[in-house]
Design goal:
Helices cover 60% and strands 6% of the residues. The protein is of the alpha+beta class and 354 residues long. About 4% of the residues have low confidence.
């Protein structure tokens, strides 16, 4: 697809979603979608109303993001297609991905993955707005969240960074649950199609997160730095939660607990591999090694160096602000807290043990 066709697809998709969401804004509120005709890769969430007024929200997306996201996802599928012979089953769980290739054209795989990734970015912005993140960081100002890491404020104090990272993870979680519900709505009666859609979504999101940044693929700082969380941590915290959600709803017929574990593992692994391929293509490596994720995916973030200290900072902030997020959501959107980030007791015990 050329750039014009990509922009056309992106605008049609997001405008339809924004229209569907208007009902949740009541008669006096509004959600605007704005396209920014620049090649910069970015997306923004902006509130144009005070907290006690009907919400006037704006989500802005650049043409640069719409195009780069499509091309990056396409690059990953082209790479996998060209290297199928080298991608043995043993190598990082790529078997299911190869099966998807079967008779599917790269253009179809790219399109499906792109639509779920683009929707995820849109819902991430919506999460910032619906959960009132702007009111938490800037209570007396009209402010906007931007997604580009390169524009991040690198001189933030650690506690400001921790709050910012926590809100980004909360928006990621909102978006992941929202897209999961959309996939369920579409594929509820077709479990094999749902399984493919989930993997396609995970691949798209993995590429999307790396489209916003060129920071190190797998680094986790000891404490939060700058405005956004490390990309690998965003993936590893979000993707398994989506599969847990499907498991909780028992939507995949005939799935045992073990099969769900397999799905979490394979989808996360595939997503990690795609993120890895994407990052190396970005770095200009023609033939990226496909081995590094073996360690990465076998060791969850809370067990890697720096993971515990980083996550302790995040969880402490989340515990302070979560009641506000739940309250903001119940005012305007979902009556329950399904879409609000939570950390399980078991996860906490590992993070806080010495
Ligand atoms: Zn954000």
């Amino acid at each position: 697809m050329d750039d014009t066709e990509i922009i056309d697809l992106a605008t049609r998709t997001l405008e339809a979603i924004a229209d569907d969401l208007q009902a949740s804004y009541g008669e006096d509120g509004r959600l605007d979608l704005r396209w920014i005709p620049t090649l910069e890769v970015n997306a923004h969430a902006r509130s144009l109303s005070h907290q006690d007024q009907p919400p006037i929200h704006e989500i802005a997306v650049t043409y640069g993001l719409a195009i780069a996201l499509y091309k990056n996802i396409e690059d990953v599928f082209i790479f996998i297609d060209a290297n199928q012979a080298d991608l043995s089953e043993k190598q990082l769980g790529l078997r299911p991905l190869k099966e998807f290739f079967g008779n599917s054209k790269i253009s179809n795989l790219t399109r499906n993955s792109y639509l779920s990734a683009l929707t995820w970015v849109f819902f991430h912005e919506l999460g910032h707005l619906k959960q009132g993140h702007l009111n938490i960081t800037h209570p007396n100002l009209f402010h906007q969240f931007s997604e580009s890491y390169s524009l991040s404020e690198n001189n933030l104090a650690t506690d400001q960074s921790a709050l910012s990272h926590c809100l980004e993870l909360a928006a990621d979680f909102f978006a992941t649950m929202h897209v999961s519900d959309e996939l369920l709505r579409h594929f509820f009666k077709e479990p094999p199609e749902l399984e493919k859609a989930i993997a396609s979504f995970f691949i798209g999101v993995s590429v999307a997160i790396y489209t916003f940044t060129d920071i190190d693929f797998e680094a986790i700082p000891q404490h939060p730095e700058g405005s956004h969380p490390p990309p690998i941590l965003r993936l590893e915290m979000m993707l398994p939660r989506a599969v847990e959600y499907f498991s909780y709803l028992k939507v995949l017929n005939g799935y045992t607990k073990e099969k769900y574990y397999d799905l979490v593992y394979l989808c996360t692994l595939n997503a990690n591999v795609c993120a890895h391929i994407r990052w190396h293509i970005q770095e200009g490596e023609e033939s990226p090694s496909l081995n590094i994720n073996e360690n990465l995916s076998a060791t969850p973030p809370h067990l890697r160096p720096n993971g515990k200290s980083y996550l302790r900072d995040i969880i402490q902030v989340l515990d302070e602000i979560r009641p506000i997020l739940v309250s903001n959501m119940s005012n305007s959107y979902h009556k329950d807290s399904t879409y609000v980030l939570s950390i399980t007791k078991a996860y906490r015990e590992i993070v806080f043990e010495d």
